[in-house]
Amino acid sequence: MKRDKISVVGFMGSGKTTIGLLLANFLNYFFYDLDEYIEKKEGKSIKDIFADYGEEHFRNLESFYLKELIEKHNKIVISTGGGIIKREINRKLLKEKTFVVFLDGSFEVFMNRLEGTEEKDKRPLMSLGKDELYNLWISRKPLYEEVATLKINVDSKTPYQIVREILDFY
Ligand code: S3P
């Protein structure tokens, strides 16, 4: 059943992992962070996968493991990586099989959250310039919107407020 599988989508720094984990705890669902799942399965960090095999290979792994998680589990919350919506096949899968929560907000807020933290270093795309990252956000926003079952603006809200808001609609 579609409602038994929740996915969380949004840009880097929007809080997908924090919110997904909290949401899963509230619902007593299993929680998976797709990036962490890929790292565990491949025995390599996302950063090293990008560096050694390139982004295209990472995207192949991302699509493969997203499908695996969705097919294998019920009562699950999956926090995805910010680029999951790049491929149409992923958008279709997310839309058809999961209740999709899009964490919307301001680019500046997302970037400030990652600035100066080790989280920034883990993300290969954070080495792009500010303008390029902003353009990436602008080009991806309609794709997050396209898959969203529910869109939540996360600016100046606590994780608990965000999760309460999600649960009100769920
Ligand atoms: C990416 C976002 C990252 C990670 C990878 C690529 C992207 O996940 O999947 O570095 O393309 O936006 P987060 O959104 O959790 O940072």
From TrEMBL:
Cofactor note: Binds 1 Mg(2+) ion per subunit.
Organism: Dictyoglomus thermophilum (strain ATCC 35947 / DSM 3960 / H-6-12)
Keyword annotations: Amino-acid biosynthesis, Aromatic amino acid biosynthesis, ATP-binding, Cytoplasm, Kinase, Magnesium, Membrane, Metal-binding, Nucleotide-binding, Transferase, Transmembrane, Transmembrane helix
Gene (name only): aroK
GO biological process: amino acid biosynthetic process; aromatic amino acid family biosynthetic process; chorismate biosynthetic process
Superkingdom, taxonomy of origin: Bacteria
Catalysed reactions, semicolon-separated: shikimate + ATP = 3-phosphoshikimate + ADP + H(+)
Family listed: Belongs to the shikimate kinase family.
Pathway: Metabolic intermediate biosynthesis; chorismate biosynthesis; chorismate from D-erythrose 4-phosphate and phosphoenolpyruvate: step 5/7
Protein name: Shikimate kinase
